[in-house]
């Protein structure tokens, strides 16, 4: 059983009458990559800043590694790495000096500091630019430096606020690859607007809207959609009798028929998924004239799910 | 985690202090700032004194006027020194906290295992030490040398006056750093701190009953005690010393409390 790394209970932050985060209760298991989603102003950055002790909650509580975010923030930050939405570093320092400065918060031994700096530069492919002042760095390079400094202490958890925002496709791919490499050793909790990236690298998602939790859970569960399970079948050949037989099955709730090029797609919604798994394909294949091109449980795109969920909440 | 030497050798309450202090100190000793400030201190603060000692006497003697080198020298050095130093340290420390809050580097640093108290105190200590060395001790030693060179006997109270100048300067470092904790606008912070440094003398007249509770009379007192004119000074001579020290302590405590409560949004 996985341990819980982040646990919030009714975590709330308000600024006067404005509710930035409204009683957020969520749990994040360890060794997962969690996409933290929501439209602008949903409360993602507020949550991240609360977790790191940069701002203080109005109500509720939260724990990271079982430690309270307010009274034990120092211990949490000792074991955490953070990349801000718009990373800001001391512009007169080089990348190496920046990493050395950060490493000194975690390590005493100069040899260990230098080795962590060198390793981190390599991980983000900045070794060749290590001794250049960072004021000349591009947005992508700064973002990579941000990831390097965030993981310099081998954190048990990385919190990344929009790590791929404002990056070109190459930069985004770099950042995602780095995240994939780091997932083997750490839990990654990151906010983003780029749903395609979330679908590619995340295990779980947490969705916020207007400061409130909309949903949380494993991404594969979310992509199955809500309500009846749907099976997609693409086929050609003699089909009418087969279709009638399927529509009469007691565990089938509806069938949507659409034309796809020269063949047909049936989207079959089922009330009893166990039955469907066992019998649906057999029922279709009873008719020898039917040729199946594709058969499978319908997977929604994250964007579709997100728009449905956030649209409902707005 | 096992291979991490949890780095914090200092007490938990000051976690991150030594690293921050080293970083902040490099802004002085790792750049040209240290020698520029040393020049401002050694030459800038003593230029008027040197002029008064070595250029003015023949002119005044030719005009048949008498000159009191000790009184005039004390007024030149301390009068000028208090003013230059307060303005200089305000400019030097203006962005120390406020700039980091506005640029976002404070948020970045405080996401590391650093206490907010360490953040404030490291900045205070890292700026105070070079100021005391380069802008108080060095120019005072040069001034002392000029007095000796001119053959003006320097009284023991010179050291006390230098101490007052150090305290007055420290007050403005604390005021600017503390102001940076509470004030979010650079121009407002500049107006408050420079207003106190430059307008204090004017306010002293308006707030006459309370002026001894402020640092404003310190410049006159420092020059007066060196010139041996204590009797011409207001009573309770050391009251402003006590109160300036008191306000410094209050300012540091306020900065620590204020920054610990601050929201780095």
Q: Can you characterise this structure?
A:
The complex is a heterodimer of chains A (314) and B (265). Chain A has 314 residues and is of the alpha/beta class. Chain A is 34% helix and 31% strand. Chain A has helices at 44-51, 73-78, 95-103, 110-123, 139-150, 169-182, 195-201, 219-223, 240-247, 273-285, 302-313; strands at 4-15, 18-29, 33-37, 59-64, 67-68, 80-83, 157-161, 187-192, 204-209, 212-218, 229-236, 252-260, 263-270, 291-297. In chain B, helix 5 (69-93) packs parallel to helix 9 (157-182). The model of chain B is unreliable at 1-10 (pLDDT under 50). Chain B has 265 residues and is mostly helical. Chain B has one domain. Chain B starts with 16 loop residues before the first helix and ends with a helix. The interface between A and B is medium-sized, with 32 and 28 residues.
Strand order within the widest sheet of chain A?
Answer: 6-7-8-3-9-10
Q: Count the helices of chain A. How many?
A: 11
What's the alpha carbon Rg of chain A, rounded to whole Å? 24 Å
User: In this structure, how is the largest beta sheet of chain A organized?
Assistant: 6 strands, mixed
Q: Give the rounded overall mean pLDDT of chain A.
A: 89
Largest interface by Cβ-Cβ < 8 Å: A-B, 32 and 28 residues
Low-pLDDT parts of chain A are: none
> What does the average pLDDT of chain B come to?
90
The ordered H/E elements of chain B are HHHHHHHHHHHH
Order of helices and strands of chain A: EEEHEEHEHHHEHEHEEHEHEEHEH
Structural class of chain A: alpha/beta
